[in-house]
Write a structure and sequence with these properties.
Elements lengths: L2 E3 L11 E4 L2 E4 L5 H13 L3 E2 L7 H4 L4 H16 L23 H8 L11 H20 L5 E4 L21 H10 L5 E5 L6 H7 L5 E8 L24 E6 L5 H18 L3 E6 L16 H12 L5 E5 L8 H20 L1
Helix pairs in contact: 1-10, 3-4, 5-6, 8-9, 9-10
Length: 347
C-alpha cells in the first residue's frame, strides 16, 4: 500500500490576503486544504506518516543561502523595524544581479516575487515541514524500495525558484524531491499537472540535462504566472529539449488534458527517466475557484491511471488544488486510478 506523509506543522502558516488586480482578496491557500485532502487519504485507507527531519542539506541543494536566511529571519527583522503584521513587498528590483540588499524592505522585494507569498511568524515552520514531507516521500522510494509515495505538501512549492517565493510557494518541494532521487537515479523527470505553470521548477532545472521538467497548464498568455510557461521554452541546452511546456486554452476539459498528458508521458519515456516526480496540482478541476481548466473527477481518475502506468519509481508531491466541493473527491479519484494502474503494471 502506498505510504503518505504529512506533518501538523504544515497547518501553522496562513498568508490571509493577497492583491489581485489592485484589490485585496483572501488567499485560497488555507490550512483547510490539507485537512480536506487528508480526508481523501483516510477514505483510501492510506497510512499517514509524520516525516523525519532530514535537516537543511536537502533544501540547500536547491535553494540559495541568502534566501533561506531571509525566510527564517525576515519576520523578526520586519517587526523590529515597525513593519506590518505580514511581510509583503512593495518594491522589486529591475534585476537581481546587483549587490545583495541590506534593508528589510529591499530584501522582501528581492525574494518575494509577488504579493501572494506573505511571510508571517509561522511561515518558515510550515514551509520547512512541507519540504521535509517531500524529502521523506522521496527517500521512502529511493532508499526504502517502494514503487511510489505521496507527500501532502502544504504550502505548495512549484512557483518557488532557488531564491524567489511566488504563487503561495516558498520552498520548491517537487524540486527538492527530484534532487533527492538524483542521489540514486541518473535521470529524473518532473511532470507538473497543476493548473498553473511550474515556473520555479523550470527556473531551477532549466540548464540541466539530468532532470527533465514538463508542465501541462493553462496558457500563460492569459493566466498566472503569465511570463513563463510558453511552448518555446525548451531549456538552456539548445536542441536537447529537457524542458517541455504544454499550455492549454482556458476552459479545456478532460480530453484536451489527457491528450497533452499522453504527449508528456511519451517524452518521459523517450528521456529514459529512472524515477519521476509528479507535481500533483488538483486546481485544473472544473470546480476549482481559479476556474482556468475544466477537468472532472473522472478525468482525474483517468489522469491517475495514465501516470500509474509508468514503470519507474514515482513520488507524488501535492501542489495546488483549492477548497471546492470536489477537492477531496479529485484526490481520491486520482490516487484510486493511479493505484489500480500501478497494481496492473507490476503484476
Amino acid at each position: 500500500m502506498m505510504r503518505a506523509y504529512f506533518s501538523d506543522d504544515q497547518l501553522r502558516h496562513h498568508g490571509k490576503t493577497f492583491i489581485v488586480a489592485g484589490e485585496k482578496k483572501p488567499i485560497p491557500e488555507v490550512p483547510e486544504r490539507a485537512e480536506i485532502l487528508g480526508r481523501a487519504l483516510s477514505r483510501l485507507g492510506l497510512d499517514i506518516h509524520r516525516p523525519s527531519d532530514a535537516g537543511m542539506a536537502p533544501i540547500k541543494a536547491i535553494h540559495d543561502d541568502h534566501y533561506l536566511d531571509f525566510l527564517q529571519t525576515i519576520y523578526q527583522e520586519w517587526q523590529a523595524e515597525g513593519g506590518s503584521e505580514l511581510v509583503i513587498p512593495n518594491i522589486h528590483p529591475f534585476n537581481r544581479k546587483g549587490p545583495y540588499p541590506r534593508h528589510h524592505v529591499a530584501k522582501a522585494g528581492f525574494h518575494l516575487g509577488d504579493t501572494s507569498c506573505p511571510v508571517s511568524e509561522t511561515t518558515w515552520q510550515s514551509a520547512y515541514a512541507s519540504a521535509q514531507t517531500a524529502i521523506s516521500a522521496a527517500r521512502h522510494v529511493r532508499d526504502g524500495g517502494a514503487q511510489s509515495a505521496y507527500a501532502l505538501c502544504r504550502p505548495p512549492g512549484h512557483h518557488a525558484s532557488s531564491n524567489i517565493a511566488g504563487g503561495f510557494c516558498y520552498l520548491n518541494n517537487s524540486a527538492i524531491a527530484a534532487q533527492e532521487l538524483r542521489a540514486k537515479h541518473d535521470r529524473v523527470a518532473i511532470l507538473d499537472i497543476d493548473l498553473h505553470h511550474g515556473n520555479g521548477t523550470q527556473h531551477i532545472f532549466y540548464d540541466r540535462a539530468d532532470v527533465m521538467t514538463l508542465s501541462i497548464h493553462a496558457d500563460p498568455m492569459d493566466f498566472y504566472p503569465f511570463f513563463w510557461g510558453h511552448a518555446h521554452e525548451c531549456g538552456e541546452l539548445a536542441g536537447l529539449g529537457f524542458n517541455h511546456n504544454q499550455p492549454l486554452p482556458l476552459g479545456s476539459g478532460d480530453d484536451v488534458f489527457l491528450d497533452a498528458l499522453d504527449r508528456a508521458l511519451a517524452k518521459v519515456d523517450d528521456f529514459g527517466a529512472d524515477a519521476v516526480v509528479i507535481a500533483l496540482g488538483l486546481d485544473a478541476s472544473r470546480d476549482d475557484p481559479f476556474g482556468g481548466l475544466a477537468v472532472s473527477p473522472d478525468g482525474f481518475a483517468r489522469i491517475g491511471e495514465k501516470i500509474g502506468t509508468l514503470s519507474c519509481p514515482t513520488v507524488l508531491v501535492q501542489e495546488g488544488g483549492y477548497v471546492s466541493e470536489t477537492l477531496a473527491e479529485n484526490l481520491y479519484q486520482f490516487l484510486s486510478g493511479f493505484d489500480a494502474a500501478t497494481k496492473t503494471t507490476t503484476i
